Amino acid sequence: MLDYKETIVVKYGGSIMKNPAAISAFIEDVAALRQAGARIVIVHGGGPGITRFLDRMGITSGFIKGLRVTDKESVEVVEMVLSGQVNKDLAYRLSQAGVKALGISGRDGNLMEAEKMYLYENGEKLDIGYVGEVVGINGEVVTDLLEIGYVPVISPIACDKAGDIYNINADYAAAAVAAALKAGYLVYLSDVAGLYTDIQDEASFVPSITVEEIGKLIKDGVITGGMIPKMDCCIRAIENGTKNVCLIDGRKNNSLSGFFMGEQSGTLIKGGK
Fold it and tell me: How much is the pTM?
């Protein structure tokens, strides 16, 4: 059973947003956990919505290593969709379910400070535009909202010191928020059940694992592809103060609340403290 004095940071992914039943289940879960007294922070993505809007505007958008290449025109669309549409819709749905929710972005109250991110491939520096990494969190904004009973709903948009706007990968944004808050749990909701050592073999499901064990699986080539950045987020979160990270299948009804009520669900990555 969860210690409800702990803060829970939930990363709510774009893959779940494509499923109306999963959206409803998520809202119900958050309402149930809040009623039980949990302190919850939500950091959301919204990739499918961004892609639809860019396509509608005739703007081409590609990906490198799972990150959206974001030029000046695209970042304006990204902010509009994430902060203006996805964020407000999610906060409204939660409010309709009786949850005191407030939608904000990483730009509000200087919540997130960003720097431009570069990728590297074969020693070559790759410029992917207005994509940033979080270098600072003003946790007071979030803790103040938690103290008065709100669920902060955060869109991963941030500025650098010069005022330039950046698109932040929601996985990394959630890890940064969880670490800054010293959260008891960082939960990644996605469209997979958790971590597998072989995605084609259900028997290879991993119910719990440590950061050290993850590092070994990556080194041995067991964890590969798109799962590596996700694991990197988990490791960063734990190494910087988050107590536990959970990977949970958000497509299943009550998977989030069920996990915290003691049901076996998803993969738990245990911190060292």
Answer: 0.92
